[in-house]
Amino acid sequence: MNLEKSKKLFEEAKAVMPGGVNSPVRAFSSVKMDPLFLKKGEGTYIYDEDGNKYIDYVGSWGPLILGHCHPEVMKNLKEVVELGTSFGAPTEIETRMAQLIVEAIPSIEMIRMVNSGTEATMTALRLARGYTGRSKIVKFNGNYHGHSDSLLIKAGSGLLTHGVPNSPGVPEDVVKNTITARYNDIENIEEIFKTYGKDIAAVIVEPVAGNMGVVPMTQSFADRLRSITEEYSSVLIFDEVMTGFRVAFKGAQSLYNITPDLTCYSKIIGGGLPVGAFGGKKEIMSMMSPIGPVYQAGTLSGNPLAMMAGYTTLKILRDNPEIYEELDRKAEMLEKGLKKHVETLGIKASFNRVGAMLCMFFTDQEVENFEAAVTSDTEKYAVYFKEMLKRGVYLAPSQFEATFINAAMRYEDIEKTLEAAYHALEEVKR
Ligand code: PLP
């Protein structure tokens, strides 16, 4: 595989950008190779600067559920760009977008647009604190909600932990109100509420975690999270940045039949442009500035390009529900095929899948939480990743990420992927 141009571009990039990238995972460090520089996307395929073609299972980390350059998204985007890129003033498309989401998702009565998932979760937590007048928040180990200070935290030692910052630059003082909890552990969350319940403003959770591989909540855990937050009048925040409009049109909350108080979105609702949003109960959302006291603002929030790309994507998904059935069928085909391969080759692996999000962990443990996810053999994943890449399949460059199916993918693409996977797994076995 010729990667000379990518290599050269990476050398140039490293001279002027830390690690040569604008987001760390792009540097391919955990698979121990230089990153590809990508040039073009077309449906389910991507092309790098050296002209190599790959089937894309990353989809820009989730947004591209329709694949690259969907004709209708591109057409509408081109039309709107001709009218101007940003006004910093209200535009009709913002209301149409909000209406679409409010009509689609029963838990969302009002919504505000921001520019990233990080902004969405950061502001949702501020809102929950403003609404409850409390300070503490609960976050689960292995869940990722972006890089705002109070969420850059890892579990401390002990069962009831105020976690410790997992990045220099985050003062202890900032995370002292963040409690870390074990995902899918009902006893642990009950213990936390027994001790701190009256001070807990919010619990934030990825209903299907997608940042430690793919790890869904159990139904009983989801039900208990809803009931315990109600008992203590804490705000339940679903971080559906990844799962929203992905695992089902109405998101993970529809699969679990849970009505969160607030929900965070990003990724798919921007159709590949920078966006984020948080929304929920009118009573809570009415606390937001300018009608309420909780402050938030954004120069580019709700900008017409992101709104148009996102609105068009959501409209296509809403009007074509069969897309989700197809995504599920294709994802199931991939999962079943991979399971068969690892069985045939005698490789220890375990699988989690929710709709078009799946993960093969190189471990023999069932993965229900972070502690199990990290038993995966990342060296094996690195071999698997490289061997797949050589065979024209672009997976996430880390074991602890989701594999995404997109609607432009055909059954032949899955067959090709499975053929590549058999040979890649043979190399893993070696
Ligand atoms: N929340 C979840 C569940 C995510 O997966 C991510 C990013 O991958 C974020 C929040 C942060 O979003 P962003 O990268 O847009 O800031």
Can you describe this structure?
Homodimer. GO terms for molecular function: glutamate-1-semialdehyde 2,1-aminomutase activity; pyridoxal phosphate binding; transaminase activity. Its cofactor is pyridoxal 5'-phosphate. Pfam families: Aminotran_3. This protein is 39% helix and 17% strand. The chain is globular and about 55 Å long. A hairpin with a 2-residue loop joins strand 1 and strand 2. The protein is an alpha/beta fold. It folds into 2 domains: 175 residues, Aspartate Aminotransferase, domain 1 (Alpha-Beta Complex), CATH 3.90.1150.10; 249 residues, Aspartate Aminotransferase, domain 2 (3-Layer(aba) Sandwich), CATH 3.40.640. The protein contains 14 helices and 19 strands. The structure holds pyridoxal-5'-phosphate (PLP). Pyridoxal-5'-phosphate binds next to helix 4.
What is shown here, in short?
This protein is α/β, with parallel strands linked by helices and about 425 residues long. It is about 40% helix and about 15% strand. Bound molecules: pyridoxal-5'-phosphate.
